[in-house]
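Batch job 17 of 40 flagged for manual review because the log was empty.
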Amino acid sequence: MTTGFFLPFVAACTLVSPVVKAAVPDARLPAKHQAFFKAYCLDCHDSATREGKVDLETLPLRIATVEQAELWQKVLNTLNAGEMPPEDSEQPGNAEKADFLDDLAHTMVTARRSLADAGGEITMRRLNRREYRNTIEQLTGIRVDVESLPADGGSGTFDTVGASQFISSDQFEQYLKLGREAIDESFERWAARSQPPRVF
């Protein structure tokens, strides 16, 4: 049973005065996640193998450039979509994966702000409704109603066009709210199954 799942979309606020802008924290993924990377990513994406021409072994935990941010965003997207690790590889537990994604999402939001201040820009694509519903169901077993989420403004029949999947802080909160509701329902179901049968 997962102990928590925070969707990889969080609201970020920067307090700004007319004169001084609040300092942006360092965009650094916690060092504890090096073990996650070693266990689930580097067999295929180390400097020697570079499957798909992706080298994650030299990717620093501190995001200092747009290029690094774009590669971390790719990691976030593929993990969210369930595309990695491959089905025939060892899979992380739900809680372990959720913890990594939550920290990476926070780090990406911080990186976006700090790089924007330095004149750089990265695109952070939100999951569309279908991707989000499937991700939540995979992690919690709960199928959420995604009608309250932003409409998928894709191009033609495609609903994953990155340029149309922008996200605001209000939308962050919508995703987070649905995620928390799914967690609550998942815990309620688990608690109900854990109760001993009543004897009369």
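Reviewer: the log was empty due to a logging misconfiguration, but the result itself is present. The first helix runs from residue 34 to 40. Unflagging and moving on to job 18.
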